[in-house]
Amino acid sequence: MDKAPGPDRITNELMRGTITELSPLLRKIFNEILHTGNIPSQWAESHIILLHKKGPKDDIGNYRPISLISNVYKVFAKIILDRISIKLDENQPVEQAGFRKDFSTIDHIHTIKQIIEKYNEYRKTIYIAFIDYAKAFDSLRHEVVWQSLKEQGIQNTYIKIIKSIYSDSTGRIRLESIGDAFSIKRGVRQGDPLSPKLFTAVLEQMFRKLNWEHLGLNINGSRLNHLRFADDLVLLEEDPKLLESMIQNLAEKSRELGLEMNSSKTKVMTNSIPVDITIKGQRLEYVEEYVYLGQIISPNDQMSKEIEKRIATGWKTYWALKEITKSKEIGIKIKKKTFDTCILPCITYGCETWALTKHHRDKLARCQRSMERSMLGLKLKDRVRSTDIRHKTKLTDILARIDQLKWRWTGHMLRCKKEKWSKQVTIWYPRDGIRSRGRKKRRWEDDLKMTLGPLWTRVAADRHQWKELEEAFAVRHTELRDLL
């Protein structure tokens, strides 16, 4: 799909192959556009094709519309993006982790999991709402985009150019033939490098109008009442009625932007007694688990489910690449590279936030051993020792990789100059809660404490020392695995 050209029929391959000849011409065109504010008409046009997802091909619901725009325009848009990104990022708070340097999905996953872990340990009540918008990127009113850019200090020259693209924006359906053009009056453009930043800029303007300073959770004197990753919003409160008020307030402000909250897909979660929360007369559903940014979030311990999910994803990728992984003609070096670059990341996604027990580790290790046997064409009845198999495959050990990713991300997170919520909740403990008695559940920080002691967070400030201790963490963790 990356190779499909837009209305001008210019492919990325053509541009890469003629970059020396094209560069002076494109520079001249781009400078002229920046000077006049006038854009080529083809840049404002999108060709929409239908991509089959799954299911019967005669059901239109099984297709996803894909918008194709000019590749030359994308180059120009990236230049504009480079010039406005710094200013837009300066306007974004730490609550927004989407499409930002030094932020990732792991930050917000860790934040929510740490909050739930500590609220449960200190027997405190929490209510969480996962907000879903109906076609968020396709629904924004264009006027609020220009206003948001202006209020966040973007130069009028760039606003004028972006506005020109959207004011003349048209679409055509491309099937066996190309249909008639129709105007597009809402939403940000699919495939446009500018779209993510435009969307988050508008969201920020909306949140500035919400009077939520006194709402949410008290994290060392700061208020955490929501998290954003692009249009994935999470609201947090200890009082369900205050959470209901927040959701209703958010729905009202969202409608002013053209966004409509999807009540049937917006879910609520609690570690206490469910209390009815309604929006537009519809009661929101309470769930025991929710997949947030690719990870299972639950008020109870659902780590086992997440491990099963990650293993299943790994096997799905393994079999999708069976022409390589199962081939008798392809050498083990290629299979190792395929495992390390394609399969292992599927299994370890989000491992930086995991609190693994011995049972979880054994399950992950068994998964890898099974894949290694499959690559070599071995069966259990062949009775080949695991150490001999590893000697042949030389695959990256999955448990060592998980420990490495967690250690490195933790150090980076704690040293980050931005006061991200992932950092704040890591060093925070509820002051007004009462810790539950008896044996404690496995906590995220336990393996770090085993290596460095209770003051482990202070060590992370020294990058050099933290890097030197990485091997000690892996070795000590290996020695303690049988005791977990």
Name some characteristics of this structure.
484 residues; alpha+beta; four-stranded mixed beta sheet; RT_dom; Reverse transcriptase domain-containing protein; DNA/RNA_pol_sf; Rev_trsase/Diguanyl_cyclase
Overview of this protein structure:
It comes from Mythimna separata. Residues 32-297 form the Reverse transcriptase domain. This is Reverse transcriptase domain-containing protein. With 484 residues, this protein is α+β, with helices and mostly antiparallel strands. The protein is built from 19 helices and 15 strands. It has helices at residues 12-17, 19-36, 71-90, 105-121, 136-139, 142-151, 156-167, 195-208, 240-257, 303-320, 322-325, 332-348, 358-376, 386-393, 398-415, 421-426, 446-452, 456-459, 463-480, and strands at 45-52, 63-68, 127-131, 170-173, 182-183, 217-219, 222-224, 226-229, 232-237, 267-270, 278-279, 282-283, 285-286, 290-292, 295-297. The strands form 5 sheets. A 5-stranded mixed beta sheet has the order 8-9-3-10-13, with helices on one face. Helix 6 (142-151) packs across helix 8, helix 10 packs antiparallel against helix 12 (332-348) and helix 17 (446-452) crosses helix 19 (463-480). It starts with 11 loop residues before the first helix and ends with a helix. The mean pLDDT is 92.
pLDDT averaged over residues: 92
Strand order of the biggest β-sheet: 8-9-3-10-13
**What structural class should be given to the helix and strand makeup?**
alpha+beta
The count of β-strands is 15
Task: Work out the count of structural domains.
Answer: 2
What is the approximate shape?
globular
Share of helical residues: 40-55%
CA distance, first residue to last residue: 46 Å
Q: Kindly provide the radius of gyration, computed on alpha-carbon positions and rounded to a whole number of angstroms.
A: 25 Å
Range of strand content = 5-15%
Give a short account of the largest sheet.
Answer: 5 strands, mixed
Model regions low in confidence, pLDDT < 50 over at least 5 residues: none
Tally of DSSP helical segments = 19
Oligomeric composition of the shown chains: single chain
